[in-house]
Amino acid sequence: MNNNHFVEHHTFAIERHYHVSPATVFAAWADPVAKSKWFPQAEQFEFRVGGREFNRGGGTTGPIYTFDARYEEIVKDLRIVYSYIMDREKTPVNKVRISASLTTVEFKTVEDGTRLIYTEQAAFLDGHDTPDLRMQGTHSFLNQLGEYLESV
């Protein structure tokens, strides 16, 4: 048995309040142009059940991270469920799978806008990623979403 292979399971939920309608927040996830304003621009973006979203990003000198998602359920203005894997590429032939996740994004109507509930159930693989790093990254992109929504 190889002791270098293990899985760390973790579930987290993050809530955000945005002062725009659920339809506006949902559209920021559903429209590839809008989404590219707050999330890495997708090389492939098929926002439909069974559709794929794929993008890659990272620093100019560091590794490249790939996000490869499949949309499992979409209920307009209410909910998006997608599964995704993340890989880290040091070079195109040196790729490591770092996690596999199931994510649910809910859009709830509140008196002065939208309460977004982001829940991720993740399997972090072989110590290549951690729950703390993933939550930090998720907080960052949800903050970027908020900044985008303030500008529309």
Strand order of the main beta sheet, please?
Answer: 1-7-6-5-4-3-2
Q: Biggest sheet: strands, sense, closure?
A: 7 strands, antiparallel
- The averaged pLDDT comes out at 94
Sequence of secondary-structure elements? EHHEEEEEEH
Overall SS class = alpha+beta
Q: What is the count of DSSP helices, taking H or I runs of 4+ residues?
A: 3
Can you say what the CATH homologous superfamily is? START domain
Number of strands: 7
Shape annotation: globular
Q: What Rg, in angstroms, do the CA atoms define? A: 16 Å
**Terminal residue distance:** 54 Å
- What fraction of the residues are assigned to beta strands by DSSP? over 45%
Assign the CATH architecture. Answer: 2-Layer Sandwich
Q: Domain count, please report it.
A: 1
CATH topology: Alpha-D-Glucose-1,6-Bisphosphate, Chain A, domain 4
Task: Please write the CATH class name.
Answer: Alpha Beta
Query: Which ranges are low-confidence, i.e. pLDDT below 50, for 5 or more consecutive residues?
Result: none
**Helicity level:** 10-25%
SSE blueprint:
Layout: E1 7-18, H1 22-30, H2 32-35, E2 44-45, E3 52-57, E4 64-75, E5 79-91, E6 94-110, E7 113-125, H3 131-151
Antiparallel strand pairs: 1-7, 2-3, 3-4, 4-5, 5-6, 6-7
Describe what this molecule looks like in 3D.
This protein has one domain: Alpha-D-Glucose-1,6-Bisphosphate, Chain A, domain 4 (2-Layer Sandwich), CATH 3.30.530.20. It has three helices and seven strands, in the order E-H-H-E-E-E-E-E-E-H. By secondary structure, it is an alpha+beta fold.
